[in-house]
Amino acid sequence: MNGDGEGPLPLGRRAALGLLGATLAGCGDRPEGPAAARAQPAQRRPPPQAAGGMPAVVMPVPVPCPGQPGDLVGLVLEGLEGGSPAATVVVFGQAFRVGDLPRGAGLTARLAADGRPLPAQLDVQTRHPDGSVRFGVVSLAAPALRPGARAGVMLAVGEAAGGPLALGTAFAGRSAVLEVAPAEGGEPWRADLLALAQAVGGRPWQSGPLVTQVRVAAPVPAAAAGSASLRLVADIAARADGSLWVDCWLRNDIAMRPNGGAATYRMRLMLDGREALRVAEPLRHWQYSGWGRLLGSRAGGDAAATPPLVRHDPAYLAETAAVARYDLSTGVDEASLQRMAQAQAQPAWAQPLGNRGIEQKMGAPGARPDLGQTTMWQAAWLISGDPRAAAHAVDQAEAAGAVPWHFWDPAGGAEGRGGWMDERRWPELWVDGRGGRPPRGLLQPFGSGTSNRGGNWGTIPSHQPNLSYLPFLLTGRRAFLDNLTAQGCWNVLENWPANRGYDEQGPIRGINIVKNRQLRTAAWSMRQVGEAAWIAPDDDPHRAYLREVEAANWGWIRAKLPDWTALQGDVHGYILWTGFGYNPSISPWQQDYFASTAAASARRGGEDARAILSWMTNFIVGRFHAEAKGLPRHDSVNYTLALFPTPLPQFPEPPAKPFKTWAEIGKATQDRGTSNGDGWAQSNGEYARLGLLSLALMIEIFDLEEAKQAYTWLAGSGAPYIQQQVFARMPQHNIVPRGMPRIPARQPRCIAAAAPRAT
Length: 759
Description:
Blueprint: H1 33-38, E1 57-58, E2 71-78, E3 88-95, E4 106-111, E5 117-118, E6 120-127, E7 133-142, E8 150-158, H2 167-170, E9 176-182, E10 189-192, H3 193-198, E11 206-207, E12 211-219, H4 222-225, E13 230-239, E14 244-252, E15 263-271, E16 274-285, E17 289-297, E18 309-311, H5 314-319, E19 332-333, H6 334-344, H7 376-384, H8 387-399, E20 408-409, E21 419-420, H9 469-475, H10 478-493, H11 519-535, H12 543-568, E22 585-586, H13 588-603, H14 607-620, E23 641-642, H15 662-671, H16 687-702, H17 705-715, H18 724-729
Antiparallel strand pairs: 1-19, 2-8, 2-18, 3-7, 4-5, 4-8, 6-7, 9-10, 9-15, 11-12, 12-13, 13-14, 14-17, 15-16, 20-21, 22-23
């Protein structure tokens, strides 16, 4: 999946803070206004130091405490560059705990400082099994905020909002027109987005007194795009503050269509007569990818005011099981945040289809910042709330559209009206270039050696980053849900059909994404499928399929546990990779990866995942207590442990039986010269951090005393790269048990919120 290396083309520079309805764009190549003010030259001085010589960190801002009947969660609004006038509408995503917001209840908001009410709107996207809200898109009419000024807000249960904004009235005198022109010149194809929006049927994404948002989608004629696989997908929103917002995407992802393939075109987007976005030179757009920008306009054509940044409460989000319990006490390294801002200031950052710092060759090794339950950049955003991290992570969620794992089926989805390709409609399909001719392979294969190259992307499931879930969770931006569900569906079709379980019976048939795979592949594939299934709206065309895949795979693993226990003996509790060929060793850190995914599902109510994780405790926790049984304690976070006697049989001969005791594993590891002994030579990486991660999750879910003892020992063991400054610099694994922050004195405390003021 190598591309041409063809450079991106001129695009209007935009303010990099493109989150929560805040992206702005101008035309031309020179930064103007807020974007120019934010840009900073590269820093060549040493990173800032805090008192005592430690690197400076950015701590989260305290949020208001729930204190009145009906209070749910506090958050903080922060003015961005240019500030925002009173009643500017800000839109964001919010998860809720089971039972917090029952069916039929509405959402209210008030200022924490004085109790004044703020107009609020909640658009419910998905519910818990009891009918209470799981996830919704929230809109607030914010108070006036200068740049850097903050206002605490309390969300509470209350009366539902009033009737929706009427699009016909809101769009009167406004315009939004997309033009896509042939690369070689000629008459462009024009789409009147507001006219299309008013003709849309079905449920709006948002519908209330503050925001009405609908989606328009249409194929782009091949005469304009040079390909029959390009389509327009745009989310159009009218807001009560008079602003018009367009999240405009060009997705070259229609599969199995004759004359599809790479598209080449020019484009521009006009909002209220202003050229808001432009690609002036021909853009080569590879298939199975997309790019888009969120743009706002005021009546008259000026760019809309930048809405405030929303700083969520990570502790509450952890209680909803939407995210893990990240440690807020360490803060986030200031130098890392500076590097994020510097990266965004580079001209290439704003260009379409750019990777924006995402590793394109996904098979690259190492303790990378993009690997884990989330990425380093997203974890930095969640922990610190810092606008630099927020902008960086949101922009990378846009860049996720460029990854060629988007396969659109116009007749797919739950109701046959369009959806990502799935195994149930395409049971023989393998989207790998080795799939062959349709229906076993793609009509337009992509990658090295084809005319439909993938822009230098190499999609490897064992190293796939989680780019879209958290940005969707925190922004409610529908385009990010598209990217998330596309990646979830890809994780089935990228697996060789012969390996997807066609020799199995029952629900797992054809959708097994665990069997015969590297364990990290299984971990990240299940992560993507599980998160998409959990947060996808109730009427999403992919939700039922993704839930089927998730449930079938957890159920398949659980059914294997009795046999695996007998096979593994005293050390049972590890998921054994039974891939092609044999390996004499086991990687404990890959078990930690998988445990983190199982824990995420268990915390969200997955009974099979919880049973699997409980079974895994014997290995995950037991390795730290096996010294008297023959395994040196330092080897508990070893890079590898000996698991099979050598020499190994030659595939396809029957595999050897694994060692069944810690003594056998410990002795063979020492005999092969790969033991830590009383040092850490075999643990020079993130392996100790991953051990702490899985122990923290075991404590969180099962409250195991043995796990607490192991966690305390490992945290104080002096193992490599577990110092607090490392967690501040690389926070994607910075997860702790409830009530056990690394720096208790620095654990943020919430602030009191005033009672509601009578209206």
